[in-house]
Queue: 4 jobs
Job 1
Amino acid sequence: RVEVGSSVNLTCDFGDFPRAKCFTVIWFKLRSTSIPTLETYQNVRPGGSLVGNEVKKTCSLNLNNAQVNDSGTYYCAFISSSAIYLGNGSTLVIRERSDDRAYIEILTPSESDGEVQSSGAATLVCLVFGVSEPARVYWVIEHGLTDSGSGDSSESTPDFIRNQITIPGEVWSSGSVCTCVVETESGRNMSKSASKTGKRVINRCIQSKKV
């Protein structure tokens, strides 16, 4: 599994077949759709290349800037006399970049403030969807308060990361802006803010972290 835009190298070794050489190799792709289709990569698609000395037995298919439609099972093959010999096949899955589909939802106390009045505190929950890599999630509250909140792997699923924070009721009632910040291992940042004033989405961005 790789992300869109990655470079992929598929290698085929015909060491057990004395008559096989790289110049005789043909690459096939079987795409898993409702109706299976077979594509020939004898002439590699734009952005790809065949690698290997023509008379050697280890040959490669390189796919640069891989796209979702490059997903499928790839086979190398060569024809000798009336027989065709196929490799075992390698399944390639190209997925959209995680940050392209990532987003944040913030759950806030009910508009009636009943949840705040009964406990004297307000709980906000940050749900992060579409991030497939390790990430740090924390809260920034207006007027300088920063809190890591609470959340661990047991509270999250493969589909989302969960983190919550409890703040004094008067801080929430005053309209202070509460921002959930996500920093991924690869250096991507994104955030979303909420306040009692009703401006739920105050900021959201995804960018590379500056070093």
Job 2
Amino acid sequence: MRYLILGLGFLSTHIAEYISKYGEVTVTYRSLERVKEVYYKLLREKGVNFVKLDPLNNLDLLKRIIESNDVIINTIGKFGNVDVETAHVEIPKKVAENVQNQVLIHVSSAAATGLTGEVKEEDEHCKNVSPKTPYEISKCEGEKAVMKIAKEKGFPLAIIRPTFIYGKYGAHVHFVLMYWLSKFGIVPSMGISLSTISANRIAEIVRVLAEAKPRGVYMYAHECELVNFDRFFEIMAEALGRKKVIKLPMNKNILPPDFKCTLKYSGTRYDCTRITEYIGKVSFDEKEVSQNALFMDYLRRSGLLLAT
């Protein structure tokens, strides 16, 4: 099977590494700045192919590479609430318009519905939801666009809504903050409990969905229990050799601005039924957090620890 992954980043690196064991993988990228060059070299060693692509400015190339693959996985996304329409609506729409009989797997976000508390998938897609921020609204609109096109054209579609994603290759600004505080043995206590999902588990979901070829499926991707945010710092500190840590009550304002939108989802639980139907019950993977700390330590020693 031939897989096309749109977008080179933390999540797509995990997906590409995993599914390269099962088929031919091509990843698109716009630039190879900073840590993306590390991702590129790592995946090249796994036999992954690359195509430089700006999806909205090279439509002929986009069409050709979609036509030459069996499964299209869109991981393109942007943190924050500024200029998100292009990444979350315009690009997914253009991708879907060029899909014929391929399986399209669209990676969205649990924030697409804006729902908090006890949450399960809505009976009718994107109905009775309450996205409020530009990020949430754009994610929901992107989902609606690809769902509409998939129904009109009749191709298989699965929409994945991950909660807080973590994994070995994480290098976003919030992971870098975790790294530096953990390196100095500081564990901030902020009273945050999040629904999480390992990037490796998302890769497993992608492969299962690619084989299943569902039509119009949408699901939250998460582990079935909440994780205290403090735990990330504790695990990283241990991985970095800190024998003692200092637990300090800290104001949530120290968190990066783009991450603060996640705080509204503290304590939110997502129904496990749909995800367990595909890959069984999943749990928090402490090893991935440890490996992430060591990966960022490698980036620091290489002069590459700059947040993406």
Job 3
Amino acid sequence: DGVSLNFVVDRRSKVKINKIEFEGNEAADDGRLKKAMRNTKEKPRFWLVNRLFEQVFNTRPNTIGAYFDSTYEVSNRDFKQFLNDNVKLNFLKGSKFIEAKYKEDKNSIVNFYNSKGYRDAEVVGDSISKLNEDFINLKIKVDEGSKYYIRNIDWVGNFKYTDEFLTEKLGINKGDVYNKEKIDQRTQFDNEGGDDIMSLYQDDGYLFFNLDVVEVRAENDSIDLEMRMFEGEQATIKRIILKGNDRTSDHVVLREIRTLPGQKYSRRDLIRTIRELGQLGYFDPEQINPQPVPNIQDGTVDIIFTLVEKSSDQIQLSGGFGGPFGFVGTVGLSLNNFSVRNIGNWDKWRPYPSGDGQKLSIQVQSNGRRFRNYSVVFSEPWLGGRKPNNFTISGNRTVNRSLDYYNENETLGFLKATGFSIGLGRRLTWPDDYFQVQNSLRYQLYEVSNFGNTLGFSSGRSHSLTFNTTISRSNIDQQTYPSYGSQFTLSVNATPPWSLLESDRYSPDMSESERYKKVEYHKWMLDYSMFIPLGPKFVFNARAHLGFIGTYSNKTDSGPFERFLLGGNGLNGANNFIIGQDIIALRGYDDNVIDPVDPVTGFRGGTVYNKFTAELRYPISKAATSTIYVLAFGEAGNTWTDFAEYSPRNLFRSAGVGARVFLPAFGLLGIDWAYGFDSDDSLSPAVVSGSQVHFTIGQQIR
């Protein structure tokens, strides 16, 4: 015996907010209070034109004189209210009414008043009126109360520091507006600078430190504060406990930790450790969660690091047009947590020997018999296991053949390049420990046989021996989606000065194959990138790049090696692997189209370049499985064949929008739409203005 109940639910359409009005606000206008409500917004509107026509057509002849009456004044508040009523350009913010968010935003209004000294402010009432089926109006009534000021600040329980020192550190003085938000920030945790009272003590080991701010007296418009603190004893780190690093070996994690057993506890070092672990790329940076577990009885603390592993390996499958080389396919594999030590330990194969933080990258490029490139790179970031000495060894082999048009099995000529490099880098402690220096030695052999004039001669060999020094500094918070910090890199590549060591190195009677038998140049590269958070989500990224290639003597030219090409998405084509050209991205223009010709030698590409980029980024998802963000950008750049022609204001400019998706297995994938504003008919092919769509793969430096 029962009945069946069927519930029919009509959700109706989502309700949006048409207008928000305030009552009782004298110290802050409506616009400022609406700004304080982060998640409750009005629908976008722009009614200025309509209001103008209304005023013109509704004006009577006997009222025209009022517009020219000099005694009539419009207050700043009235003008702001007029704009607030008629202009609302929050197109990126939704205007849906969500009750839970609305309650939070009413508290945000109170917090805003508290930050301006209105300690007793409160929302005393609100009402919702229905405009139609889709829109509502909100009316909020506030009681601002009186504005308060700081009168006296007394410190109680401080033994390590004097009252005067703590007051200066606090940064709040007698007569300042009472700002509860600022008081909490300066006494507890100041996320912007870490220069608060709590950090002062906890960075020196006082983990048990506690500070209570008590309002001991409120008279008229003045408040007396008493800072009641308990300093406690300095805590010593007893144990470091790791959880969640199932794939990565403990020693790889422990060597990046700045809070070691036996040291005094330091909040600053703990924050730095979070950054260093995030930089490894093996763990989700959003979920690195260190938990101090204090033991007051013996004055020690255990720190538990809870980690969430993520895949850091990448597979590259791509194709692109390599100019005269045709379509070039690329297959690559990057193993970023490799372990040579575990090759014989099958228990550590997941699915390859892993866990020691070594990197192994293998890449193959080909379009058949015409062009093939093979490269392999191995690096050990802690050579010897005791210090962060980064050891790198790499090799590459490139073959480009000139094939018979009627019989591709017959080779008419070839250009081959074989190279090896070995490098060693280390972290520096001066000027600070964000700096690194990397030194490397590279040998490259070029072999040419009946292959045109690509290297200035049709047959012969060229030897390139270069020494590289790179000084870099990086303090960004994470690699996938940086939100603050900066990166700086200065690198110098130099061959021996053959023209100075051998007097007959470049005699007038020397053939071209002999002239370029020993490659000679020095190359300087400067890259800078800065990330600035704008509000809770937006990130502004500014980048600047500069490069210069020169020679040691006026007896010789720069040759065909190490030239700069600009334009397009910056993906390396075949030329980059054959003769070492630097492919610089410049969205809004065709790939590698900005390649001036040296009027003396006829070689393509510049010997000096610069480029500037500004991007505004907005994250869609920051999950460990996929990071997605959109961006708007403007950039400009150019390259010149001689430093005497260099002009930092003569640039090819562009602007556009794009999106990036980071997938752990494939790395960073991107698409951009850009419009190039400038043209140049003097180049061949000509540089033309217009729109371009670009696809990118990987994290590009330039």
Job 4
Amino acid sequence: MLALRPATSAAWLAAAAAAARPSFLPARVGPSFRRGPRACASTKAHHCLKSRLKELIPEKQAQVKYVRTTFGDKSLGETTVDMVYGGMRGIKGLIWEGSLLDAEEGIRFRGYTIPECQKLLPKADGGEEPLPEGLFWLLLTGEVATKDQVKSLSAEWAARSAIPSFVEELLDRCPSTLHPMSQFSIAVNALQHDSAFARAYQTGIHKSEYWDYTYEDSMDLIAKLPNIAARIYRNVYKDGKVASVNPDLDYAANLTRLLGFDVNSKFVELMRLYLTIHADHEGGNVSAHTTHLVGSALSDPYLSFAAGLNGLAGPLHGLANQEVLRWIMKMKEELGTTEVNAASIKEYLWKTLKSGQVVPGYGHAVLRRTDPRYLCQREFAMKHLPNDPLFRLVSQIYEVAPGVLTEHGKTKNPYPNVDAHSGILLQHYGFVEQEFYTVLFGVSRALGVLSQLIWDRALGMPLERYGLVSRLPASR
């Protein structure tokens, strides 16, 4: 058996997939699976996207079969005791189609970096940021959609966006003191009442059809999330009145409209960027892995995603940008009339570290440079809100913190991650309800985890079950 170090195993697997490509398959399969746009016969996104996926599935199935037959007995790396006790960090145990995290370049969506996605993915008329619809198309097919395909997908989601009256009533009856994420999970679970997959499974459909019904449920669920999120927001923080979906608007613009913000403001552009960059981050994080794990039991997309949302609600996962914002606000309060400069920020950073706390928004388990998702948000702020006081403070922290953290010596990555910036952008545009930020994260994350769930069913991924160790050697 060939043993490989974990650091090299991902690259080896990609190379093996390329080498294993059967001669009868087109060059699109494997690491070059990402390709340019391909026109579809139908002008409707539902049929166009689904028919394209239907073409890709047999190719991918053949590739997986060949790789497993040829390389199935090869090792992806060594598992140590520390890995097991350390939350399985570093163990290679999951196939994830949509994204891969590179230590130097950050997240890649189907091989494309964040800057490449910003450049290549379709944008709204007059817009500068990529549309989330384009990223979903990319995650699902590995291909860059045309502008017309993305517009059709926007219209398709708008057409599917209505939520059942009983779900509306359920949300309206929730006390305003119930956390928005709890309400979000309740609503998604309730939508399971109309699951196409659950109904079809009860009739005894063939497993080769699982992906079809998973696709239908996933499309319905993604389409309904802005309506659900907005109803929660308007009930908890506003007057309870929710606008209707505009079929002529894109996904992020409709979310903005439903929340009650001006669709002609730059906040719409921020939402397009936010939903795109938060959509997927490999499959090992809690929300992504939980969705996959629950889905492996053939739970439908509603039950699977609701489970993922419950994981996202945890303070170690989806609450990070709130903690960053609280830390920054506390810094402003404690510094008071003290001039905020490099010296005072440095002193406050050391005070945080010496008290046994971490500096929120800094460091990353994999990345060894500044998170590209932080950088694209910084670029957005420099363009649209350069004089915002909170942005200027975040910029000052960015100049000082890496040096302090390097000197402190307890982090492998002293640079900011995505959470160090997102909160202050939302605050600038009047989105000040911090408890709701994780709901926005959840709307975005659906694009990544549900596109993968469709592929899980298409590739016949089995019930997930780990081996375990229960007997430990006696201590001396």
